[in-house]
Amino acid sequence: MGQFIQQLINGLTLGAVYGLIALGYTMVYGIIGMINFAHGDIYMVSAIISVTALTLMSALGISAVPLVLALVLIIAIAFTSVYGWAVERTAYRPLRNASRLAPLISAIGMSIFLQNMVQVTQGARVKPVPTLMPGGIELFTHAGFSVHLAYTQIMICVVTVVLMVAFTGLITRTSFGRQQRACEQDRTMASLLGIDVDKTISYTFMLGAALAAVAGVMVTVYYGVVDFSIGFVAGIKAFTAAVLGGVGSLPGAMLGGVLIGLIESYWSAYLSPEYKDVATFVILILVLMFRPSGLLGRPEVEKV
């Protein structure tokens, strides 16, 4: 029972990270109908930026943990949002009226470019960072096994819930959310009604990148190591989470992320950790075969 609850905590923490990345996939797909396969590497770039920002804070002598985390989040979100805007401006906007295959290839090319740019500029070695939030809460001990809830896990879960509520409110209750939903339904008609479609799409990419930035900072603080290759696997798993929950559904993206995190955690604990990625991709295949719209997604209706 102790190990079961410990893996539940670990899975929820990991799922919260996947859910944040999956929200970016879902937002972009909802407005342009395409998957941004460079999104995982945007998350990787944010982790590298957070390492740089943490090093800068240390050099400046800033040691208060809340202040350090706030400054690192602000820096990572600002720079990563610019990367998100650049991806949309260079890889998607010029090909918006092309066949659906062209933006897909362009996004994969942007993903490879970001990976190699970070590898060349920052080096291929793993980049460690000091522990910012050591310790945690020991919930209980059962049969010699202690169930531990780390402060970083609490922070990740709380931040994820707050962001989920905030972005749901942004999409459903604000003028920008109405513009975004209008562009999702019919970009031509939205443009005729005075909505700046290009600006709305750019802001959506920037918001998705900001969510990835938060996930990158959380992962950096939680694990303490990052490298240039973390974006690909995390991006594919977050994509799986978005598909599982229903691409285009914000609650579905978070639900899919949590489910993927729990499956990985329990699979690693009770079966074989070497095959946890295989389990994730098998789930992706099964969902695409038997429920392509996902758990909370709605089947697309073809306009005639």
Automatic annotation (TrEMBL):
CDD domains from the UniProt entry: TM_PBP1_LivH_like
Residue ranges of the TM segments: 12-35, 42-62, 68-86, 98-118, 150-171, 203-226, 238-263
Signal peptide: none
Cellular compartments annotated: Cell membrane
Keyword Transmembrane helix appears in the UniProt entry: yes
Coiled-coil intervals, chain numbering: none
Topology term for the membrane: Multi-pass membrane protein
Keyword Cell membrane: yes
Keywords: Amino-acid transport, Cell inner membrane, Cell membrane, Membrane, Transmembrane, Transmembrane helix, Transport
Family note: Belongs to the binding-protein-dependent transport system permease family. LivHM subfamily.
The name this protein goes by in its record: Branched-chain amino acid ABC transporter permease
Organism from which the protein derives: Silvimonas amylolytica
Phylogenetic placement of the source organism: Bacteria, Pseudomonadati, Pseudomonadota, Betaproteobacteria, Neisseriales
